[in-house]
Design goal:
With 172 residues, the protein is mainly alpha-helical. Helix content is 78%, strand content 0%. It is built from six helices and no strands. The chain is globular. The two termini are 16 Å apart.
């Protein structure tokens, strides 16, 4: 079964639910997420040429840094949205609020960079520089595709349209 890159990306970039949360949320979604994660792992293994040991180490690093990076990304999105809203306010933007949001944005960027640096140091222990470069490129592909899908789905929701069925969005 082939999954669109956007589906893989969206699942890789969002924190995983615990098994209990998955079953409570939606058993079909939990099964789909499991299949997508398995396929994403296979793609990663193939593109990077990873051994079993490297794959296990990569999964450990991802489970450690993924939730932290996801939380920072969520905070960055929230801060950008608040800044946009403030700048679009009818009465004009509050200088103090904009300053606070800009400071928060810079702080979050620094936090994200520090996490990426720490993650890269850990990856350097078991991945070659070429594998790390390929992994960075793969992550960028996933993010770009997820962003593209998010923009497409956001526009559909704003127009009152339903989201496309899973597995059909972004298929070329």
């Amino acid at each position: 079964m082939r999954f669109p890159l956007a589906v893989v990306a969206s699942l890789l970039l969002t924190p995983a639910l615990s098994p209990g949360q998955q079953k409570a949320a939606n058993p079909e979604r939990a099964a789909l997420e499991q299949r997508v994660r398995a396929r994403a792992a296979q793609i990663t293994r193939e593109r990077l040429g990873l051994t079993d040991a490297q794959m296990q180490q990569l999964q450990r690093v991802n489970s450690r840094f993924g939730p932290q990076l996801g939380a920072v990304a969520n905070e960055e999105r929230t801060t950008r949205r608040q800044l946009r809203q403030e700048l679009m306010a009818d009465q004009g933007a509050s200088q103090a609020r904009v300053s606070t949001l800009l400071d928060a944005s810079i702080r979050l960027q620094k936090q994200r960079i520090a996490l990426i640096e720490a993650e890269q140091k850990e990856l350097a222990v078991f991945l070659t520089p070429v594998q790390r470069a390929r992994y960075i490129a793969l992550q960028a592909q996933f993010r770009n595709r997820a962003d593209q899908l998010s923009r497409q789905n956001g526009g559909a929701r704003q127009r009152g349209m339903r989201r496309p069925p899973p597995g059909t969005a972004g298929v070329r």
